Amino acid sequence: MPDKKTAKLLNKHCVNGRKVVLFITHASPEDGPDLPPWLEKFRQAARGAELAGFFHCQGEMAKGVKRMMSILPNAKFRMWARMDNSQGQPDQARLDRARAFSRDVMKKLHDAK
Question: Whole-model pTM?
Fold first, then answer.
């Protein structure tokens, strides 16, 4: 789910069919079962815009975030902190995918002019 600052930014810029591209990094593995509903919340936050592209990939969880999650009362957060496998992410394959996505979306936007 977008944090408050991100939600405010999306609410400000995702209006009147404005073209936007969502580029999201997260600590979750891309095939994680909890990820699709979380990503859908970003799509919903941008629903006032024309979504020209959507990219997400695993990035490294900050050590402080992992530490905080490991002591929270919510068992799911503690489990996620224990299961974290995000160190060293994004790896080269994810960076290559991000570059390809960026080139493709820029070409798409340019060709639409």
Answer: 0.87
